[in-house]
Amino acid sequence: MKEIKIGLIGAGFMAKAHSIAYAGMPMFFWPVPAIPYKKMIVDINEEIAKAACARFAFETYSTDWHDIINDPEIDVVDICTPNNAHAEIAIAAAKAGKHILCEKPLSLTAEEAKEMYQAAKKNNITTLVAFNYRRTPAVQLAKKYIEEGAIGEILDFRGTYLQDWSADPSSPLSWRFQKEICGSGALGDIGTHVVDMLRFLLGDFDKVMARCATYIQERPIQSGLVDSLGNEKGNAQSPKGKVDVDDQCCFMVECKNGSFGTIEATRNAWGRNNFITFEIHGTKGSLAFNYEHRDELQVCFADDPDDRRGFRSVYTGPNHPYGDALWPIPALGIGYTETKIVECYDFIKAITEETEASPNFRDGYAIELIAKAVLKSAQSQTWTTVDNIEE
What we know:
9-stranded mixed β-sheet, 24% strand, 391 residues, Dihydrodipicolinate Reductase, domain 2, globular, 6-stranded parallel β-sheet, Rossmann fold, alpha/beta
């Protein structure tokens, strides 16, 4: 069976998730279009790179990402670095003729995203941006219902991504709070997941009206290289550094199809862990989803009898999207790992069949244009039109 050789750059949390997906994908989707082979992993810290090589079962490791680009055997460059390294690596990979899986958000800016998209397009590269939450079977089921017309014409929606891991001021100043490394804060880190999910379900955004805020102006400087996502704590004596990105972002959206809604993203919502939700209302019914209950899609159809109308749960399983490859009983349990496994399968399948993956770099560029409009609107306090993609 054909092998697809993987070079993975970055050895942190996302490297673990991607490595599990490469190992697990053939166990779920069999026969597979190709077997992912973990060829090389890279981290700038040699001790971390060496440990990741053994832990994640790669053939070899390096401290220089150029070694992956220059290795003629490697087919895929998997980018799991902080955001400021995405563009340089991806453009080099595209020029070397390698397919690219890149963690979200695609880049620091829309301008970088444009360069990445055009480089991949010019070199006929299969690309994927790792917005894995859209691959939750319940979200795919919502897409199916919408496309079938089951809830009629879409009227309005709301989406959230709420977390509390950085609500504590003693949480360290990781790269996620530094604009030169991350580009934007809650908007880029988690808000873009909701943007991708709703754009996938409802179509392109036309204009936005936004408000962003930074609640915690400085944080203890992080002591180590690994991003602890709030699990490390500073103290009153710890040296502090400036936070120059948003902690919270809330914006109204008008879609090109006429539907209207709101999106909120914050990492300062005490009591919320990974609270990704949407509710969509149509002329014939409504859909609601909460990722913390990711086996369920809440549905209500207008043609239900009056005495039985209301939200009910559809538990995803073998009869739903991706269900035949996952678990044999509805509600047996879909986790973060399964969404990454599905993502891996779709990407490898697109490579072998020479088709486009989704969301690809064009989609990632579109989302960066939306983020750009959101930040511009937050500054001007006016409705802001989302720029069109420059092909």
